Amino acid sequence: MGTGITPREHLDEVAEPLIPAKRRVRKPPVLIEEMLGDTYQGIVLSFDGATKTSPRRGSCGCILWQLPGWKVLEARVFILDDVSVNDAEYNGLLKGVQMALDREAENLVVVGDSRIVIQQVKGLINCHQPNLQKHLAECEVQKEKFRTLHLMHVKREYNQAADYLTWKTLSFGKSWIVQDPEELLHLTEETDDPFEYQAERWRCIRVHQDQDIYLSEIKSFQKGDIGRVSPRRRRKISKVADLFALDARDVLYRLARLTRGHPRDFVDEPRLVIPDSLRSDMLHYAHKDFQGGHQGITLTYEKLRSEFYWPGMYADVGHYVKECVDCASGKGRPPNEGPSPGNIEPRRRFEVVSMDIVTHIPDSERVNIILLLFQDAFSGFVMYKPMTSPTAQDVAEVYEEIVFRRFGASSLVRHYQDPRFMSEVFTRF
């Protein structure tokens, strides 16, 4: 039998069978990137869901496509009340599947950008939340009505049609059926130029900044157009105008400011100023989105402040994370310490005695510095003894003198776990 030296890159493979597993190891789900062939013929369902916290309302959209050609067969969008993001995603899936059943479709391909919903329905990950378990059970019933049902997870950029309808409906606040020819054409048209897509994004950001009163005043001050600003507001804006700058696209940025603790913290990286109308969307993407991962307050805040700015960002992040239903319901049940023993009800005098020590009293002629109190829980009778030495031995002797010699031994002695009451001397007594 030959011997040799194991290469470094194979050390883990050699040591794995030699080290016993301390607990059951669960393999992660295998994620496969699926694609439809160019010659595929059939119906494809794309769905999406979105929510806003103020007011707590959501929406879901579902589109049925006929392949090849990507012809829109039917598109519907629904308003939902008091739902989470995953609830909205599940509703979009269920309503879209029902649309396919109404058309008597036997084979269906479902695509969506919700990793949680897709993998739960496919059985790759478990579902622990009661509200999602109800939706999952409905999906299992609907799956049995098809001959074949394939679910595919896609990136958000490939699900823009459903995402567009969802957020548009959330802004309008009412459910609707897409029948306008221009809207149907907008769903099917492709944007070949990525620079055109970026320019549209920057245009939307600029419009939202102009609609924000505070930011529009700062932008007017930066441009020198201060005629419509009152002198009082002008003096106030001039104190903070040096912290902002406009780029060539007329978009407002926040410049980094040196601090004593972090002298070079984001010195060369200006941050985009987020208007009030877009802050809820930024909080959603930084916390609830797939890339957010439902992180805590600190990580969500650090992720936002590295590229964006708005006044009171940390307070808004803290309020948003604390109101996240998924984070609150995903921590499990609180530990059960057992039932409460209830109130102690003595049946006779001095069966239960309470003890306490009163300190910081004025010195007496006998130099007594503390007062040891005893109270009968049955009658409320109180006895006390002035003391000069608060040691455990002295406390035990006073208990013997005041309580034990007069009324006998007590079944229970209540105290607040003072070291003099918990000592070995008093316990053995």
Automatic annotation (TrEMBL):
Entry's SUPFAM superfamilies?
Answer: Ribonuclease H-like (SSF53098)
Entry GO MF terms: nucleic acid binding; RNA-DNA hybrid ribonuclease activity
According to the entry, every stretch annotated as the Integrase catalytic domain falls at 337-429
Tell me the organism's taxonomic lineage.
Eukaryota, Sar, Stramenopiles, Oomycota, Peronosporomycetes
The UniProt entry's GO biological process terms, in alphabetical order, are: DNA integration
Transmembrane ranges, per UniProt, are: none
What is an example of a Pfam family matching this protein? Answer: RVT_3
What protein am I looking at?
Unnamed protein product
